[in-house]
Amino acid sequence: MNGAHFHLVVNHLPIIFPMAGIIVLLVGFFTQSEAVKRTSYLLFIIGAISAGVAMASGEGAEEVVEKIGGIAENFIHRHEEAAELFAILSYILGGLSLASLWASWKQKPFAAAASVIVLIFAFVVLFFAKQTGTTGGEIRHTEIRDGSNAPANDGSSSEKEHDD
Fold first, then answer.
1. How far is it, in rounded angstroms, from Cα 42 to Cα 47?
2. d(Cα 80, Cα 78) in Å, to the nearest integer?
3. Structural contact between residues 79 and 138, judged by C-beta atoms closer than 8 angstroms
4. At what angle do helices 111-140 and 13-31 cross, to 10 degrees?
5. Residues 53, 48: Cα–Cα separation, whole Å
6. Which residue, among 48, 57, 20, has the nearest Cα to 36 in the 3D structure?
7. pLDDT tens track, the chain, 164 positions
8. How much is the CA Rg of the chain, to the nearest whole Å?
9. N or C: where does the chain have the smaller number of CB atoms within 10 Å of the terminal CB?
């Protein structure tokens, strides 16, 4: 398994965990179950850890993909920039979730407010997850690019795009 393969295996996890965490946290709100809310916090924490793994595997993936003909460097750069911001936000969400897990466990008076903050921040993280996933997909999937995302003409791209 090369660096690109490993990155493809793990890169969806930091997107899936926050999605699942939001659903579970909403269920926790509706059922008024602290145990369910705690489960969502654990999902967000695991999501932050998986973001670290995806970031660590990104350089290896970049080395492999740069050797493939027809790949424009600007797509890799845009994805890398989006991924760095998304990872930082994921780490913050993991930290907020850890604090909220502690507050819930210790039955602190601010635990309910902390869960609302985590939920709101999780939606912010999910927005940036979408941006990161899209920019990553655009590296190899020309069918998801819009006209404004055409590759830079660096002379190395043999790929021609047509508007239909």
1. 8
2. 5
3. yes
4. 150
5. 9
6. 20
7. 888 889 989 999 999 999 999 999 999 999 999 999 999 999 999 999 999 999 999 888 888 888 887 777 888 899 999 999 999 999 999 999 999 999 999 999 999 999 999 999 999 999 999 999 999 888 877 777 776 555 554 444 444 444 44
8. 19
9. C
